[in-house]
Amino acid sequence: MIEKRHIGETAVYAAVLMAGIWLFVRLDAYEAFHRWSRAREGWELDELALILPAVLVCLVLFSFNRTRELRKRARLLEESRRELAKAHESLRSLNQSREAFLTTACHELKSPLIGIVNAFELLRMTEDQGEREELIQLAGVAARKLGILVDGVLEFSRQESMAPAPTVFSPAELLASVRDMSLLQVRSRGLALTTETADGTPPLVRGGESVLRLVALNLVGNAVRYTDRGGIRVELGSRDNPAEALVLTVSDTGRGIRAEDLATIFDPFSTTAGGPGLGIGLSIVKRLMERCRGTIEVDSAPGRGARFTVQLPVEVVDAP
Hints:
By secondary structure, the chain is an alpha+beta fold. It has helices at 4-26, 29-38, 45-125, 129-158, 171-187, 209-225, 259-262, 281-291, and strands spanning 167-169, 192-197, 205-207, 231-238, 245-252, 295-300, 306-313, 315-316. The chain folds into two domains: 4-85, no CATH class; 164-316, Histidine kinase-like ATPase, C-terminal domain (Heat Shock Protein 90, 2-Layer Sandwich). The strands form two sheets. Strands 2-4-5-7-6 form a five-stranded mixed beta sheet, with helices on one face.
């Protein structure tokens, strides 16, 4: 297809050629050339005069084709440059994502490590045998939590676009494990932790057990950071149709969340005004839910705490 600029170029070349012919005639150059050529008939200048316009036309066509080829190459180079810029931007974004993931992993692994260190510090300070046994037990729970988090982080990093493989698990046992892993962290702030499995919750389901555990631990950890007094309540149940989804609810009596912060609370590195932490725990929860086709909602207001509700698709499994 002929482009408009090519038509314009042809018109310019034709105009230049016509202007040259007009100037040649206007200055009587043709008559002078005729007299000069008659005096030198042996040179066959008449034939040369006939060939010259054809040569000029060929030069015009060559120039036209050459210009079109150069412009085509320039266009291809520009497209290549844009593709390279796009690839560079993708690599830069991937590098930033990896850095954010490393920060996230360090952030999530720090909590159980602190719990273990605190447990052994308290163990060194107390002589009561009952307290020592309890602290050893809590340190063991924190160590197990650390192992589970490491497994979860490794699985999270391996699977860039796929949800974790579903496993068969007991919702009640999962909630009990979340309670055991979070108890030391909650007690260190002088808070109460209440857990409840709702009536009608299926005994066994198939779904993202590791995802639900990581989500619950993150939500409890977030509640602990933003609650100064009172307690945290964790409930696990099922939607109207048990085969559709498990519903996890984590509520606290903390400071609550301002309306202007609700829109960005799940963004990486976003924290409420004056809040502790790096602001990446909730972004992990959001990302996990998106990968597993789940949902998360928050209901909060300043001064009345926060309530996070998570729904994770599962499949009910018959008890063996």
